[in-house]
Amino acid sequence: xxxxxxxxxxxxxxxxxxxxxxxxxxxxxxxxxxxxxxxxxxxxxxxxxxxxxxxxxxxxxxxxxxxxxxxxxxxxxxxxxxxxxxxxxxxxxxxxxxxxxxxxxxxxxxxxxxxxxxxxxxxxxxxxxxxxxxxxxxxxxxxxxxxxxxxxxxxxxxxxxxxxxxxxxxxxxxxxxxxxxxxxxxxxxxxxxxxxxxxxxxxxxxxxx
Amino acid sequence: xxxxxxxxxxxxxxxxxxxxxxxxxxxxxxxxxxxxxxxxxxxxxxxxxxxxxxxxxxxxxxxxxxxxxxxxxxxxxxxxxxxxxxxxxxxxxxxxxxxxxxxxxxxxxxxxxxxxxxxxxxxxxxxxxxxxxxxxxxxxxxxxxxxxxxxxxxxxxxxxxxxxxxxxxxxxxxxxxxxxxxxxxxxxxxxxxxxxxxxxxxxxxxxxx
Lengths: 209, 209
Prior knowledge:
2 copies of one chain form a homodimer.
Chain A: H1 7-25, E1 30-31, H2 33-40, H3 44-51, E2 64-65, H4 66-77, E3 83-88, H5 92-102, E4 107-114, E5 123-124, E6 127-131, H6 135-142, E7 146-149, H7 156-166, E8 170-173, E9 186-189, H8 192-205
Parallel strand pairs in A: 3-4, 3-7, 4-6, 7-8, 8-9
Antiparallel strand pairs in A: 1-2, 5-6
Helix pairs in contact in A: 1-4, 2-3, 6-7
């Protein structure tokens, strides 16, 4: 299959995937674009535009086969096998992330890393906490793809550099502070503060669905 | 000031705000659009396009006054006073969110809510945990604008309905499950799973900056 899809649509594809998996878990076999629009909170016209790339799978009046569509999306995003993830930082956020990501079958949470000696060796929901100093050896053995950062701002940049030297190519950060991306590394930010601001803006504007 | 800015730019404005505040904290007085592009991880051309709405503040060759630009952005987003937030759920994620948001001066974390009797009455970083049953009375007194949901999927929809009946207009959810938005309520999702998938996709594609 050779479909080229714009990056903005790719971002929404993983949202559809979330909704499709929910539908699958609920035993649903068919899904309409209007269902996806409602459960994903994306406008119907955008959903239809994005799904037009998958036109061949749809049947007029019936919609899409849930399993078929989610498999096609998985192939495009490139997650036909579980994404190998490590969590850096085993505090409240790190613990929450481990619990959250362990529930999702297409992630493999390989390990957590911390600097705090008291946390090393513990297990959080079955995930072992290792010393951050061992990241290089760990990378050679297990080749994690993504590091999720759940650490305080102090020493953030050094940790990122350390992860990059070990071989990590993708980093997800919850920190408010910007990080300088080492060459060859992609950093994404989960900006909780911005999401809240944007919500406040939408409420103020009265643009309520 | 009557500036109309498209919604996609508004989303980026709060990212600029994060970077501007960091610059402010570091004692920086002037900022160039290229600095913002680098620290925010947004392409230079997008930053220049977004900031063109604030052209009157910029000085060629010097850039923007940090304080002036952030104040103008705050006014447009509508956060010239702190956003009143409550956290629903006082588990790992709830605790992490309280610590995270308490660090940000333009948020006021009014209280946390939980169902678990053992957690009620405790304080997390100075924020009291109240029984979720008290939300209606609490709303009348303190009028929180945004509820951040940090609760398990069980009973998610009922909690949302409860918050909506109390008067809450904006909800931020970390759950994978879709929620039916009650009339007049805006729900935004922080999709950690999607962010990781998108990172994995970018790495696979080799679109590394």
